Amino acid sequence: MRVGLQLPLFDFGRPEVLGPTLRKISGVAEEAGFSSLWVMDHFFQLEPGFGSADQNMLEAYTTLGHLAAATERIRLGALVGGVIYRSPGLLVKGVTTLDVLSGGRSYFGIGAGWYEREAVGLGFPFPSTAERFEWLEETLQVAEQMWSAEDGPFDGEHFELAETICEPQPVSQPHPPVMIGGNGERKTLRLVAEYGDACNLLYLPPAGIKAKLGVLRDHCDRLERDYEEIERTSLSPAGRGDPADLVDDTLDLLEGVADAGIQHAIINLPNAEELGVLEIFGEEIIPKAAEF
Q1: Residue 58: which residues within 8 A CB-CB, separation 6 or more?
Q2: What is the pLDDT of residues 194-243, one digit of tens each?
Q3: Kind and range of the H or E element at 184?
Q4: pTM
Q5: Is the CB of residue 55 less than 8 Å from the CB of residue 11?
Q6: Any idea what the CATH number is for the domain that residue 112 is in?
Q7: Which helix (H) or strand (E) holds 55?
Q8: What is the residue range of 172's domain?
Q9: In what helix (H) or strand (E) does residue 267 lie, and over which residues does it extend?
Q10: Which DSSP letter does residue 284 get?
């Protein structure tokens, strides 16, 4: 099993220390052996969840570009991007740029979006759930076209692009892995089966993960897609407790999700700026998880 790291909080101090702190975190995470490094794609901090809406939150793709310059091996992505925040052409261009400048280390994480408060607050459109999923499917189709030899128009129900030129093309071949995030059985997992290279299941116990992966397999069977082509990832929280409890609890968590079918477990770590915690992962958790 591979282990990834998500950074949910940026309350490291004054604004001028955020960049240097992120560089330190990413360097230690890479040295510890984390396979991937992720940030949320939000503009307000999640409330409820991690604090209050007016706490620090950094724009995802600017932050990922900063992290790309500070690292050499770790893969990078938004977990996951909100389809309502950027037009499809801009979003795919941003992901492609991250992939090129990182030397082929980006994921394309994407989902339907859900945080209405920040959308209304900052003036983003927030259509119905059904329409957001229609946007999501068309955005996935735009990405397919922009990452192909076809650079002509895209005529969708919601989006029209006169030219789908995307140069340079990604370093990742055939393109950055498309990770579709969410637990929805009817729409999200169907889109994973049709368009995705990876799924991401959020905050589920092993039994829930196993059930969702069974639904994904059924969608793959109906679409004649090889289920084993899809990377199976999860997002789970880690606590701030005693280091010994952190090791035991995290290993129990990772073994459970591995037994349920997860190949790449991403840990949401709220205190990653305490670099010793990342070192504990590197010394005591990641090597053992690799055996699961």
Answers
A1: 10, 18, 39
A2: 999 999 999 999 999 999 999 999 999 999 999 999 999 999 998 666 77
A3: none
A4: 0.95
A5: yes
A6: 3.20.20.30
A7: none
A8: 2-289
A9: strand 264-268
A10: I
Query: By the 8 A CB rule, do 36 and 76 touch?
Result: yes
Strands (E), 30-164: 36-39, 75-78, 81-82, 108-111, 154-155, 160-161
Can you tell me whether residue 77 is helix, strand or coil? strand
- Six-digit token pair at 279? 């070192």
| β-pair type (160-161, 81-82) | unpaired
Q: How many CB atoms are located within 10 Å of the residue 222 CB?
A: 11
Please check whether residue 36 is in contact with residue 266, taking contact to mean a CB–CB distance below 8 angstroms.
yes
Longest C-alpha distance within the chain, in Å? Answer: 57
Q: Which two tokens stand for residue 235?
A: 């997002």
Distance, CA of 133 to chain centre: 17
Of 44, 54, 201, give the one whose Cα is nearest residue 115: 44
How remote is the C-alpha of 62 from its chain's centroid? 15
Q: Quick: pLDDT tens for 140-192.
A: 999 999 999 999 999 999 999 999 999 999 999 999 999 999 999 999 999 99
